[in-house]
Specification:
By secondary structure, the chain is an all-alpha fold. It has a domain of 27 residues. The protein contains four helices and no strands. The chain is elongated and about 55 Å long. This is Iron-hydroxamate transporter permease subunit. Keywords: Membrane, Transmembrane, Transmembrane helix.
Length: 54
């Protein structure tokens, strides 16, 4: 409720609750980056080598 009426004052609370990558480690971010790179490569590959043209 306080965040609705005082968004500027409560912004720090949200940032504090989220933590930081230093505290939580980079593992999840690195895993997501690898998975995203593989997916983008597959999408690009299938778009280029597709038999159907748009």
């Amino acid at each position: 409720m306080m965040m609705l009426f005082y968004p500027e004052e409560s912004r720090g609370l949200v940032q504090w609750g989220a933590g930081s990558l230093v505290q939580e480690s980079w593992y999840d971010s690195q895993l997501l980056a690898i998975q995203s790179a593989v997916c983008f490569f597959l999408i690009f590959y299938y778009a280029v080598h597709s038999q159907f043209s748009l």
